[in-house]
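Write out structure tokens for ABC transporter substrate-binding protein.
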Amino acid sequence: MGKRIRTAIAVLSATLLVLTACASAEPTTSSSQPPAAEPAAEAPAETPAEEPKAEAPKEPVTVRFSEVIRSIFYAPHYAAMSQGFFEEEGIVVDMNTAQGSDKGAAALIAGVADISLVGPETAIYIYNQKGDKTLKIFHQLTMKDGSFLLSREKLDSFEWSDLEGKSVLGWRPGSAPQMVMNSKLIQENIAAEVITNVASPAMAGAFASGQGDFIQLFEPVASTLEKEGKAYYVASMGESFGAFPETSYVATSDYIRDNPEVVQGFVNAVAKGAAWLKTASKEDISAALMPFFEGTPEDLILQSVERYMAQDTWPAKPELTPEAFETLQSVLIENGVLKPEEKIADMGEVVDMTFVNAMKE
């Protein structure tokens, strides 16, 4: 595990270097007694008051946005896009999918993305590299792991001991879902082989082809594999592991300093999306999300949303608290990707929750 983690961190550093290479009326006086000798002057005709001129609408600001993967785990963001909440804040979102937090963070450092939705651990990794740029977490979108454990064989009931001696097709070393899985196995004292060298877009296909006894997937891919009869749901990693700050909106410290109105508008829009999901009808939710998941049936989209809502994925206030930050760093240390002496004492070095605290109700 240590060798794989060191390799993953080295890959992140190399990616950063490559992307960086590739890439402002006269005054009058008054008296209590009127003059006696002079006739009163004729009062000047009143001119109608000018109506206040409406401010010219601000030009929309384009934000280059990188999401870690495409998943219904991030439904509030897609709802904000489909319902026009970003436009209300004067923001046009130019979105791409990075396929990894390491790549999403590297895009920020290289200046090819403005805001990324990634694992918050990336801000800690980059801070400890002591480079020219740092990242700051400004909105905590999810507070649970978003993956689900599926089995190849149907199980009447599931116990974590069922993983003993089995293989689990999982995520890359150092990623949030991989660390949640590893920490859960440590908690349960289970020895399982976790396969971490399959790229996330290829995981479902690899499992369908026979690799692994279990697989750890996000929605809607998990529900799709179930519907195809190629896997069986056994557990929610979010429910099993508990509160964990898995995915955050992150930008460079420079971008946040130079564009506070844009960052505030971004936070406001996503918060509106999260609130909308809680009250919208099933029909409206499926209509809002389906354009982002072409080919995924409506029932699977709704099932995915319901699973994430059931485990309290999206916090009412999207804040990375000191307690959650402590949990994050403890998991990083437990998984060997953060040395105890590298632990950040002042979370303000990589976290800025002022925009969340100021967001519109």
